[in-house]
Amino acid sequence: MVKKIIIDTDPGIDDATAISLALRSPELEVIGLTSVFGNAKGEVTAQNALRLVELEGHDSVPVARGSDVPLIIPLEALGTMVHGEDGMGNTNPPPPKGKLLDAHAAEFIIQMIRSNPGKVTLVPIGPLTNIALALKLDPGIVGLVDEVVLMGGTLSCPGNISPVAEANIYHDPHAADLVLRAGWPLVMVGLDVTQEVFMTRAYLDEIYQADNPATNLMRKILPIYQKFHDGFFGLGGDIHTHDPSAIVYLLAPHLFHTQSVAVFVETEGRCMGQTVADWHHQWGDRPEVKVCMNVQANEVLALIKERLVK
Ligand code: RIB
Ligand code: CA
User: Fold this and answer.
1) What is the average pLDDT across 11-32?
2) Apex 261 CA angle, 258 and 264, nearest 5
3) Does the C-beta of 168 come closer than 6 Å to ligand 1?
4) 190 touches ligand 1 (CB under 6 Å)
5) 11 CA closest ligand 1 atom index
6) Which tens digits make up the pLDDT trace of 200-238?
7) Is 254 an active-site residue?
8) Hey, what CATH topology would domain 3-309 get?
9) Does the C-beta of 11 come closer than 6 Å to ligand 1?
């Protein structure tokens, strides 16, 4: 059964690979992209989302622009030092041909869920502001989605934007806490697994041999992302596989080991954005979610390569 998905995204270098992967996977029907601030400004990520559906001829996939700022906290540092001011590695890509939908991302999400009850999977791979807005506008969507599979959070390893916080959660902690306590079927693909999936320079060089639009874009935009990973983690040109790992979960969930636990988000102070699990199942004030704690990294990488080099 082909899975209808909406990718909520802040493209964004790894978002670009994730979107190409999803569009190249016949198991998935991408019924829309919704864009959000995060790796770059909201107006930038929206245009990048349009560029990405056009990259390999998926122009008919609608793109709805969403929030430019978090629900409550002020808009802080964007991820431009990792993804470039243009969200595309400062490669200054040509403008997209297409136009954005004339609807806010949250309205689009609600409309698609209500017109396909029980059939839509939400795939947030950026800050969760649009998803939280959709929840606030129409709480009834909780019972109408197939699943929410998000890239974000960290339970067993340090943060990547603060000592304890993962970037997507950190950028809008109030939104993340709303989404994680909503009670819908939710899978959290966090740093616990995405930092175990390394795209090495050798792996990337193999992918670049495909010489297709998706892999050529990766070759162009990845250097800044490799530089960040080397400077911050000392990876010498290798990179973590964040957003594409969430797409692989949709394709092959058996490659991930999950546990059920209630997760809340710290929304203020020095630990803002920290995702905290109630592993004793004693203090959770909310339904449990599935968190990915282990991954068969080699198989994830093999699947990504198989789809990108086709
Ligand atoms: O922490 C990694 C996440 O933050 C990824 O979604 C990346 O694109 C950035 O948004
Ligand atoms: Ca992202």
Assistant:
1) 98
2) 120
3) yes
4) no
5) 8
6) 999 999 999 999 999 999 999 999 999 999 999 999 999
7) no
8) Inosine-uridine Nucleoside N-ribohydrolase; Chain A (3.90.245)
9) no
